[in-house]
């Protein structure tokens, strides 16, 4: 649907949620890409301790993603959950400066607990809730999710360069900027009107459009072989890749003359890559509609495997820059491909549940189990050897997924018992 073909309310929602993505991912970029650097350089954590922090974040993310997945399908287009996330984001700078950093330096376990609770809610769990909510809004308001998601890539890109420069001066500056932008998120939530038209609202009130969602319905997924095949891909490919990427910034900066220079270059490369990501994301719906969601996920898996294995053999700054850029080709195929796969293979009523629990939850569970172990590998055998092991795992599961993922029509819960895919 072209922007000019949308009615005024739909067009306004497109703009508001495009801006929401921009500022939300700007704030996330103030944290995520440089978080391992902040933990190591500012708080003096070892790679094993850094892995413990990531494990804690993943553990709390599991709890929140289970809740968010079920709550999101219940709430529909109501904004209660997004309001909780935005209010906590306003406290972003005070939390990092006055709570998390002192706790990490006082006691790693208390710091990991606090970091896991906050970051697991607003980002690791919250990002999936934001993605699922806006994807639902896009379907209700007749615009392509991939088109509005582009702005998130741009926000991430701009903040990455800014953070890369400011980090060597004072990382707290970026944290305060992020808290300020969270106030803009609140304004956008107030302005947005994602509800369907008045006729649909009346039908909803009398029950004509009510979705018969229940927790029992969600558990019916466990009886579907297609769900387990999708889970196999997420755990064996996407989850391993996330763990690989957690401390890549520390690996990256080791190729430069000084850690400060490496951090700056990392920010610039992230910016360039994210702008490329935005360009690809804009065309991703057209590409994936043509090649199919299954093939999009397989392409993403191949790119992830190539980047991890390539990193195990990297020996120069040019090579790690190229490998970092590969990430931006993978993200559009994985993210848009996942939503397309869920909507084309499963019952649309469970879209948020499948994304938050089937996709994000399984990734976080793997993160709990793997982050500390992989961090210990970095301390013992080094990045290169650890990356080779992780790359072989993702390549193997990508190959297996060629046979286990399906590209066939959606399966409703009523027919799940007969599903043999």
From TrEMBL:
Residues 13-409 form the Major facilitator superfamily (MFS) profile domain. It is a multi-pass membrane protein. It holds the Pfam family LacY_symp. It is found in: Cell inner membrane. Its main location: membrane. PROSITE patterns: LACY_1, LACY_2, MFS. Keywords: Cell inner membrane, Cell membrane, Membrane, Sugar transport, Transmembrane, Transmembrane helix, Transport. The chain crosses the membrane at residues 12-32, 52-71, 80-100, 106-134, 146-167, 173-191, 227-244, 264-284, 296-315, 386-405. This is MFS transporter.
């Amino acid at each position: 649907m072209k922007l000019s073909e949308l009615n005024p309310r739909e067009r306004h929602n497109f703009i508001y949620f495009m801006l929401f993505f921009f500022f939300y991912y700007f704030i996330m970029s103030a944290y995520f890409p440089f978080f391992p650097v902040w933990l190591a350089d500012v708080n003096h954590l070892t790679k094993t301790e850094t892995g413990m922090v990531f494990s804690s974040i993943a553990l709390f993310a599991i709890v929140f993603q289970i809740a968010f997945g079920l709550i999101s399908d219940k709430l529909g287009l109501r904004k209660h959950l997004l309001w909780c996330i935005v209010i906590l984001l306003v406290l972003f700078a005070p939390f990092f400066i006055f709570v998390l950093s002192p706790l990490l330096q006082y006691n790693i376990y208390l710091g990991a607990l606090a970091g896991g609770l906050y970051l697991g809610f607003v980002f690791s769990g919250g990002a999936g809730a934001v993605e699922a909510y806006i994807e639902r809004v896009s379907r209700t308001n007749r615009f392509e999710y991939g088109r509005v998601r582009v702005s998130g890539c741009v926000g991430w890109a701009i903040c990455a360069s800014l953070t890369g420069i400011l980090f060597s001066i004072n990382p707290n500056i970026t944290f305060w900027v992020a808290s300020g932008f969270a106030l803009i998120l609140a304004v956008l939530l107030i302005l947005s009107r994602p509800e369907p038209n008045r006729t649909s609202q009346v039908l909803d009130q009398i029950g004509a459009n009510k979705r018969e969602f229940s927790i029992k319905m969600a558990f019916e997924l466990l009886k579907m072989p297609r769900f387990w095949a999708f889970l196999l891909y997420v755990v064996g490919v996407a989850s391993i890749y996330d763990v690989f990427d957690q401390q890549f910034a520390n690996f990256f900066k080791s190729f430069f003359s000084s850690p400060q220079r490496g951090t700056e270059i990392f920010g610039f490369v992230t910016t360039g890559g994210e702008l490329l990501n935005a360009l690809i994301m804009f065309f991703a719906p057209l590409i994936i509609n043509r090649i199919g969601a299954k093939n999009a996920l397989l392409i993403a898996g191949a790119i992830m495997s190539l980047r991890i294995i390539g990193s195990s053999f990297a020996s120069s700054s040019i090579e790690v820059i190229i490998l970092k850029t590969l990430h931006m080709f993978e993200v559009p195929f994985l993210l848009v491909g996942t939503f397309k796969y869920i909507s084309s293979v499963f019952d649309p009523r469970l879209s948020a549940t499948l994304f938050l629990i089937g996709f994000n939850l399984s990734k976080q569970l793997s993160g709990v189990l793997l982050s500390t172990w992989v961090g210990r590998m970095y301390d013992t055998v080094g990045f290169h050897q650890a990356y080779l092991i992780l790359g072989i795992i993702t390549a193997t599961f990508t190959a297996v997924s060629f046979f286990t993922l399906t590209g066939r029509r959606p399966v409703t819960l009523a027919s799940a018992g007969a599903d043999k895919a």
